[in-house]
């Protein structure tokens, strides 16, 4: 067999072995992630940083909070963040229950 072809086949076999090992050994943390929620969280935090520190003396109008009537993008950052927190609660509770925490202990921790 051609040595170059054999080298490519060995490399492919190694890549397949590595990917199959990584996909079969998932941690419980990685299984419970919701990608869309993580992306939305990242966008919201980036927007939060941009609103709080726009990078100069001049501002884009949508990065300033509305005076009283109306809203801008800056006014949506906090509600987005609260929505993300609410959407993540069922995932956190399920994770804790899967780890063996009792419902009574979990609710006591929430009440604290």
Name the descriptors:
5 helices, 112 residues, flat
Structure notes:
By secondary structure, this protein is an all-alpha fold. It folds into two domains: 1-27; 32-111. It is built from five helices and no strands. α3 runs antiparallel to α4 (77-98). The N and C termini lie far apart (69 Å). Residues 16-22 have low confidence and may be disordered.
| Helix proportion | 55-70%
Report the biggest beta sheet as strand number plus sense, adding barrel if it closes.
Answer: none
- How large, in whole angstroms, is the Cα Rg? 24 Å
The pLDDT mean sits at 78
Tell me the span between the first and last alpha carbons: 69 Å
Order of helices and strands: HHHHH
Number of helices: 5
Number of domains: 2
* Low-pLDDT stretches: 16-22
Number of strands: 0
- The coarse overall form would be flat
Estimated structural class: mainly alpha
Strand content: under 5%
């Amino acid at each position: 067999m051609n040595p170059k072809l054999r080298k490519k086949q060995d490399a492919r076999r190694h890549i397949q072995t590595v990917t199959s090992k990584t996909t079969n050994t998932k941690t419980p943390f990685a299984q419970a992630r919701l990608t869309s929620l993580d992306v939305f969280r990242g966008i919201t935090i980036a927007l939060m940083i941009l609103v709080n520190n726009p990078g100069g003396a001049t501002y884009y109008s949508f990065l300033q909070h509305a005076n009283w009537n109306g809203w801008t993008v800056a006014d949506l950052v906090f509600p987005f963040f609260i929505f993300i927190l609410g959407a993540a609660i069922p995932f956190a509770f399920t994770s804790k229950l899967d780890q063996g925490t009792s419902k009574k202990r979990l609710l006591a921790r929430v009440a604290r």
